[in-house]
Amino acid sequence: MKNKVLNGLAFNDEVRFFIADTKELVNKLQQTNQSLAVASAALGRSASITGIMGLMLKDNQEVTSILKGDGPLGQLISIANDQGHVRAMVTNPQVEIPLKENGKLDVRSAVGENGSLKIIKNLNMREPFTGEVDLLGGEVAEDFTYYFTVSEQTPTAITAGVLVDVDYSIKSSGVLLVQLLPNASSETIDKLETNIYALKSISNLLLEKSLEDILKDMFGEDFRVLEEQNLEFRCTCSQERFLNSIRVLKHDEIKEIKEDETIEVECHFCRQKYNIDTKLI
Length: 281
Ligand code: ZN
Known about the structure:
Elements: E1 3-10, E2 15-21, H1 23-33, H2 37-55, E3 62-69, E4 75-81, E5 85-90, H3 107-111, E6 115-122, E7 129-134, H4 141-151, E8 156-164, E9 170-180, H5 186-198, H6 202-208, H7 211-219, E10 223-233, H8 239-247, H9 251-257, E11 262-266, E12 273-277
Parallel strand pairs: 5-10
Antiparallel strand pairs: 1-2, 1-10, 2-9, 3-4, 3-6, 4-5, 6-7, 8-9, 11-12
Helix pairs in contact: 1-2
This protein binds zinc ion.
Zinc ion is lined by residues 235, 237, 267, 269-270, 272.
């Protein structure tokens, strides 16, 4: 199932926004990763934001985010393209840590406060674009915000949230990303800061409001939606892709693989298993 994304302009066309409900996407990520609550929250946030970054691309370009902190979750890898296809995985999906004092999931401790966020954009050129920043605290949205500001010199504010139900399914998940355009006045900047600060968590808002209603909370009547897009879980694995990745292994590794008639490989993103006839290698 597809998730709705709206993008457009606000505050006298001085601000660009993307807003997405990513509940179905994150539900699918929870199922494929078999993740417990805090892993779903961290992975859902990073995959939702990476999904939006994918929609900023064009012509089959792809973006990968690798968020690696020193906490128990390990690495969070999300990959998205301009079509809104997203896949994502986390090293240790079954991590359980105590809730924060306010009863919320402790994403920061699960991710770790020290580490890095690396962004790799495959822009169909010879070399991919890469940018890397130190983690700003491991709450995910802040780390991506910091990346945009430092690595892409684009003043950006991002809020992303995931609510996980008692059975580990996803109750709600969403992301709002706003960027100041070069023509933004200081008045617009002030207004934006105040309104973002006043906005409740997006995952809570999505329990009772539509994307359009949340945009009204944020921008009043001063916004226009330019485009409706979609995000959905989709993996790009295939037998041919696995064959290609085996074919580049070292000679003696291939020889060892070919000792068996067939081998079973599993995609880390979608858990699809392939029985590969080693004669094809
Ligand atoms: Zn796959």
